[in-house]
Amino acid sequence: MKLCGHTMGMPEMDIFEAISFCASIGLDGIEVRCAENGQMHLEALTSDDVRRIRDHAQAESVEFACLTPYYRDFMDEAAEKASLEGYRIACDIARQLDCPTVRAISGQWPQDDFERDEVFERTVEGTREAGAIAADCGVVLGVETHRGQLAWSAAEAVEFVEAIDHEAVGVLYDAYWVHVRGEEPVDKAVEMLAPWIVHVHAKDCAREDDGGTHTTLIGEGEMDWCEIIERLNGIGYDGWISDEYEKFWHPERLPDPEVGMKHNADALRRCIAAGS
Known about the structure:
Blueprint: E1 2-6, H1 15-24, E2 29-33, H2 47-59, E3 63-68, H3 77-96, E4 101-104, H4 116-137, E5 140-144, H5 154-164, E6 169-174, H6 175-181, H7 186-193, E7 197-202, E8 204-207, E9 213-216, H8 225-234, E10 240-243, H9 257-275
Helix pairs in contact: 3-4, 4-5, 5-7, 7-8, 8-9
């Protein structure tokens, strides 16, 4: 397995600084948050921009592990067209960066104006078309397990990707959200998702007094990342583990990336070494 850092953890850095930061703490790669307020606004990048980003990463010996855009809406013709155009841009840039994976979102659920069956059908059909775009670019889509979407639990993720049934659509296993959902323990979740896992997000989970949860440094919460990595080893997964350090969303709760992401990288390396 290889470790990468998610630029969500470095909200004050631009893409060039983020690449250099990942290199400085010994990470093999980078996952890039792609949005207007992220490190790469895909729709605004020129071919020269992409080339300069690629060249800088090569100079720092940092690989691109995943691009993470936010296309999700297939609920009407205009929204579908916009989402598919976004996927075309994202997958083509991933191709240029030799990045294997583009994150996909399994729609939004619940929604006030639609029943689940309709959201499911439209999002499956749209994501299948996006998978064809990814295949043409030589990359894969990773449907993230995440709250507020159709694929939160492992069982829901399996239902979603099985319905899509496309070789270029797999699962981005965000173990935190499957853990928070609480329906499948680690061994069961990994077993269920084994045929489809193409990328993994790592973060730890702490409970709040009101029953809610928040992320914390790896090893300081209730998740056993050494067990998760052991289970991933058991199914033959040898892809990326991405430190999805949520400094962007929780700037006051988490320490600066120089402290927090360095801590997480060291903790994950120990787990990988223990399982090798």
